[in-house]
Structures are given as structure tokens and as C-alpha cells.
Write a structure and sequence with these properties.
single chain; 3 domains; six-stranded mixed β-sheet; five-stranded mixed β-sheet
């Protein structure tokens, strides 16, 4: 990830006691929170502190009143988060800095404050454009949760991926629960996973067994990289329950704590665990941090996807195939999540999908391109430009090279020259964009001399190359930043 802005929101108040009610929660949320904003970028080895201890005041009652209107909810939440000008400016600076690149928005919420985690941060809207931040494919909104787990998290090279798909549909579901389409869910998962070897647990042909907790734990020990769990989720005594199966197909209401413990005991944890289950990401004030998604993030799973509240299976059917298909491209789960939310669109509950992330977004790294093959020892003549020859000598012994000059091949055409000039034009424009983003962060008055000089040099080269192209009869566009004020 080239650019990240992290908003670290903290509470100085002690954690809630179980006996406290919603009015007490409201009092806590109306109390003062503080937030830091930090920008990190591949362009600099040092982070930039954009805001420190900025005040944040949240109004839970007003937000709950908007719970059935995601647009209004997101607008109000954004107004509250960005009420302080330093936080608003931090967002605008980060957005400008990453104008030509992707931007990860990382929400680091106080691990003691369940009420913070219960808010629908995914609905946040841009304070300037009023557009939902999480629906831009180039803006990757994720959550992060501090973990005390000491298991090292490393970014491996692209592995030979293996997946585990669990689809639970007990025969004695509670009244009002719809049956899970096991065959359909398995078919969609297989289609999205493509050629990734996949083990299936559930009541379907070719499955390795029922979707029991014992079977899940056994197959997790085989270290699958991607795990997808499709099941009903409910609350019992304000604690999450997953409706898994027993060997006879009847229900086993497994506690969220048991599911988390099964993962915590593993020597190697999945890279990604997807919980296509209601309330796997929490559902309201007082139960979010006890939900399975945050629990798995705390025990060290690099990436966990859960759903807030009661999720419609129709939304899952659209989101998961897009998510997995996009993930397979480059292993960048935050980018895949942004694409999957965009696939749902603003008219569907994109905000219910919450991603907890410990890494920078990569679940694996792509292999470096192979080094170019070295020529065999000898004399090689090539790369002609007119009658000028490039002579390369590799290995062996050369006493002399004697002969007359010849033309090998035709001189470069005007189109060939134009192609090279256009590539140089694109390179200078990319350099210019980088320097302009630096100016957006520091301001013109505080810009380093080399930044201002770089802008002047890039614009001079852009003007020169455009003049050459036009002189040769080739069309070239003018871009807004090509000329300065």
C-alpha cells in the first residue's frame, strides 16, 4: 500500500461494566474522545503526523435515530468525526496526496471502547463531496484492532492457495430462519475460487463431512489460506452464537468464544477468514467486541471479514464472489474489499461488511519478474540506430573487430519516435504529480527547494516534449497540471 491515513480514536474513560445501560453508554459517547491522524507513504521513510489529540464528540442517540438511513447516518457520523478542523484538514490533505494513487483509510479504535466499534464507520462520507468513502474502489476503508498475540505475521510469497468452505444448514433451524442453500453457496464459492483446491464441509455431494465444530477444527489444522464460513448467527445472553451442525445434521449452537478458541489453538492461522453470518461483526452497543469477527482479529488472524447486524444472503451472494475473484489478482484484501463493496452499490447494504486488518493489506506478495536471460558468450551485434551498431562482447577473447560499416534494418520510424516521447511525457507527468502532492501536504511556503525545482524541471520537459510531438504532426492533450500559475 503506497499511502495510508490512520485515524486513531481513543477514550480516556474506563471500560463499561456489564450492568451499565444504554443511557450510560450515551453519556460515555458524548464525553470527550481524542483522535490522531497519521499519514504514511511509500514516497517517504518517515510518517507525517497530521493531527494529535484532536477532540471528537459522538452522539449515539442521534446516530441510532438514523440507523435505517445509511446515507443520513454516514453524513452525521462524518460531521461528528470531522467537526474539528484539524481532522477535516487531515483527510483532505491525505486525499490530495494520494490523488494519483490508492489510499487506505485505517480506523484504529480504542480496544476498550465497545461503543466505538459498534458504530457503522463504513458509512463515512467525504466531508467535502458528501460521497460514501467506502464505495470508491481507490479508497480502501478498513478497521484495525490491537492484538496481544505474539505469533509473527509475515507476508509470504504467493502460496499455492488452498481454501476451506463451510456451509451449515441444520435440519432444526429456529422459527423464522430461512434454510441455507448449501448447493448454491458451494457452487458460487467454487466458481469464485476457480482453480484453488477447496475442501467443502456441509450437507452436499463431494463434501469432506458435516459442518461440525470438530470437523472445522480438524481441517483448519491443514492450514488453508482462505476460510469461508456460511451459517446463521444469533445472540444468546448478548453473546454470539453460530448455528453449526452435529453429525446427525441437527443444530449445534456453538458459542463465538468456542469458534475463536479453535482458531487461536492453531499453529498456523488462515490468511483470511470470511464469516458470512449475521452479527459476526457485531450488531449493536454492548456486543460488538464480543462478536466473532473482532475476536478472531484479536487472536492474530491477519484479515477477518464479518457482517454487522442481520445480513441478507442476497447481499452475500453478490459480495463474496467479487471479493474472492479480486483477491486472487494480487493478494491485496483491502483493494478486493473496496471492489466488492462497489459491486453492491449504494442502494444495497455495502456498509455491513467490516474488514479487520493486521497487515498493510497484502495477504501475500507477488513474485518478482524473472531476470532477463544473459546472452551466451560471444559477440552480439544489434540495437541499430541508422548505421550505428551496438556491439556487446560477453565472455571469450576478442583480438580485433575489423570490417566495413553496414546498415542492419531500417532507421526508426516517426511513430517509433513518438511512442518513446509519449512514454517520457507520461513519466514526467507522474513525477510532477508526486511533487504537487508534496506541495499539498507542506504548502508552497514550506516546500523543500528540490521539490520546487523538480516541479519547474518537470513542466519544462513536458512543454518541450509536447512541442516535439506537435511539430511532427502528432496530437497531444493538455493536462491541467502541465502549466503552473
Amino acid at each position: 500500500m503506497s499511502t495510508t491515513i490512520e485515524f486513531h480514536i481513543r477514550s480516556a474513560l474506563p471500560p463499561l461494566a456489564d450492568a451499565e445501560n444504554l443511557s450510560a453508554i450515551g453519556y460515555r459517547l458524548s464525553a470527550m474522545f481524542t483522535a490522531d491522524a497519521t499519514l504514511t507513504s511509500a514516497a517517504s521513510a518517515a510518517a507525517t503526523q497530521l493531527a494529535t489529540n484532536a477532540p471528537v464528540t459522538l452522539d449515539p442517540e442521534a446516530l441510532r435515530a438514523m440507523s435505517h438511513n445509511p446515507a443520513a447516518y454516514g453524513k452525521l457520523l462524518s460531521d461528528q468525526l470531522f467537526a474539528d478542523q484539524t481532522l477535516r484538514d487531515s483527510w483532505l490533505k491525505a486525499r490530495a496526496f494520494a490523488a494519483a494513487d490508492d489510499l487506505q483509510v485505517r480506523l484504529r479504535l480504542d480496544a476498550r471502547a465497545d461503543e466505538l466499534h459498534a458504530l457503522r464507520w463504513e458509512t463515512l462520507r467525504d466531508p467535502e463531496t458528501d460521497q460514501p468513502i467506502a464505495l470508491y474502489e481507490r479508497v480502501r476503508l478498513v478497521r484495525t484492532l490491537d492484538s496481544a498475540d505474539l505469533t509473527p505475521v509475515t507476508i509470504p510469497p504467493r502460496p499455492d492457495l488452498r481454501a476451506l468452505v463451510v456451509v451449515s444448514n441444520p435440519s432444526n433451524l429456529a422459527a423464522g430462519m430461512a434454510e441455507v442453500d448449501v448447493d448454491g453457496e458451494v457452487a458460487r464459492a467454487r466458481a469464485a475460487l476457480g482453480d484453488i483446491p477447496t475442501t467443502i464441509l456441509g450437507d452436499t455431494a463431494g463434501a469432506a463431512g458435516r459442518a461440525t465444530l470438530v470437523n472445522i477444527a480438524a481441517h483448519l489444522r491443514d492450514s488453508p489460506h482462505i476460510v469461508v464460513l456460511v451459517a446463521h448467527g444469533t445472540l444468546r445472553d448478548s453473546r454470539p452464537v453460530v448455528w453449526l451442525e452435529q453429525d446427525d445434521g441437527t443444530s449445534h449452537q456453538a458459542s463465538g468464544a468456542d469458534v475463536v478458541a479453535a482458531v487461536q489453538r492453531l499453529a498456523t492461522r488462515p490468511l483470511l477468514l470470511i464469516l458470512a453470518s449475521c452479527r459476526s461483526g457485531g450488531g449493536g452497543y454492548g456486543d460488538t467486541l464480543s462478536a466473532i469477527g473482532p475476536g478472531l482479529a484479536r487472536v492474530g488472524v491477519p484479515a477477518v471479514l464479518g457482517f454487522q447486524g442481520d445480513v441478507a444472503m442476497s447481499a452475500v451472494k453478490t459480495l463474496l464472489p467479487t471479493l474472492i475473484t479480486e483477491l486472487r489478482r494480487d493478494g491485496q484484501i483491502d483493494r478486493a474489499m473496496a471492489a466488492a463493496r462497489a459491486a453492491l452499490g449504494e442502494q444495497r447494504p455495502w456498509w455491513q461488511a467490516a474488514l479487520w486488518l493486521r497487515t498493510d493489506g497484502r495477504l501475500w506478495s507477488e513474485p518478482a519478474p524473472p531476470a532477463p536471460a544473459q546472452p551466451a558468450p560471444g559477440i552480439h551485434v544489434g540495437g541499430n540506430v541508422g548505421t550505428l551498431q551496438v556491439v556487446t562482447v560477453t565472455g571469450g577473447q576478442v583480438d580485433s573487430i575489423i570490417g566495413s560499416q553496414h546498415t542492419y534494418g531500417a532507421p526508426p520510424t516517426q511513430a517509433d519516435q513518438g511512442s518513446g516521447l509519449r512514454q517520457r511525457l507520461a513519466n514526467h507527468r507522474s513525477t510532477l504529480a508526486h511533487y504537487l502532492n508534496q506541495i499539498a501536504i507542506t504548502g508552497t511556503a514550506n516546500a523543500r527547494p528540490e521539490v520546487s525545482a523538480g516541479i519547474r524541471e518537470a513542466r519544462a520537459e513536458i512543454r518541450r516534449i509536447k512541442a516535439h510531438l506537435r511539430a511532427s504532426g502528432q496530437a497531444v492533450d493538455d493536462q491541467m497540471d502541465d502549466e503552473g500559475a
